[in-house]
Amino acid sequence: MPQFWTKWLRDIQDAQFDNGAVPIIAPNYRIKDRPKQEKVHASSAAEKERIDAAWGGNYPILVWYLHQYYGDDRILTEHYPSLKKWIAYLSSTTPEHIVTKGVYGDHMLPGPEPGREQFVSKETPRPLVWTAYYYRGAAVLAQIAKRLGQQVDAKGYSLLAENIREAFNKEWLDKESNQYATGSQTANLLPLAMGIAPRVNEEAVLKNVIRDINEKYGGHLHTGNSGTTCMLDTLAQRGCGEIMYKVATQTTYPGWGYMVGKGATTIWERWGRNKGQESMIMWATIDEFFYNDLAGISGPEYYGPNDMKPGFEEIRIKPHVLGDLTYAKASIRTVRGWVRSEWLKKDNSVTLKVTIPVNSDAEVSVPKIGLKNIAVTESGKTIYKNGRFIKGVSGITAATETDDYVTLETGSGSYSFNLQGS
Fold first, then answer.
1. Is the pTM of the predicted complex or chain greater than 0.90?
2. Residue 402 forms beta bridges with which residues?
3. Which H or E run contains 287?
């Protein structure tokens, strides 16, 4: 996969226009009879060239994501000049830090019934989506500049990101209702996922999202391609894993279970397939919920704002035991070796088996599933009891307890933890 991603990033770089703009698709093939909807939503010469701050904005995000995943600084060095050109292009078209030109916005919003999806969401202002990606691109570039020792650039891009953030909140955040713009799920999730929302408003904005999911849409998502990924980045990590589980397991429209119930063997482009591509990658982001949240193997956040040490040098395993699940198992092949997580829930216990590759350290959090009077063993030997860590197992150096987890600090190796309580 590293070679695939390296090649594709070069395709994006090659497709970049001389003025720094990044097209919505790379390689940037031209369609003689462009889809009708693109003509409808393109309102300027730049847009007719298929330039969109959200779609093209994935370029810097993906460079940073892959750097964190593989730990290879060469990808930063190779793409840094092109990323600077992209952000410079956006800055040249947004004197007030609000992006007003583009094509799509939140793409393929569910409709009132299958087959009536909105190709471009009319509920979430497109400039809100575009500006969020502009912010994330500037914030990423600040991180890349810092990593490459370009301190002057790092300071400049950090300032730009903060200016975009302030403009974004001034334009769309209602501080009384704690709603962004129209209060759509996507409008509220984007600033939460990307770290744009002020800390003082985050909890209330999240509550608005949960209320909308539960009360307005009966436990269903109502998001397009940008909003759905933000939902996956946000809910479980902010203590709303049960809500995300409910959304992910819905069997009625719209949802992944609805597709399965209709006989789908691939993920569709539209939530209800009356038309559209039969196989589309954008909804496959649900795998992040399986790996990051259910199995608990934390990879890089796509939208941020939290970063991880590159190349899985430090690993975090923190499973979420949700709904009626009693078991989950997953593994990821990293540049250091396999990372594995497997848990089994019983009435008064949880067993968590993990593998940490050589030259990595880890924080492994064992879910307490509401139990009290906790004791934890590793391969039968007690390592945590009565609120204190007990030394004696090689590779395990510390343990701490919170309301929901007992977290062990470990080195490389394979471990079998069993947590019991009453």
1. yes
2. none
3. helix 287-288
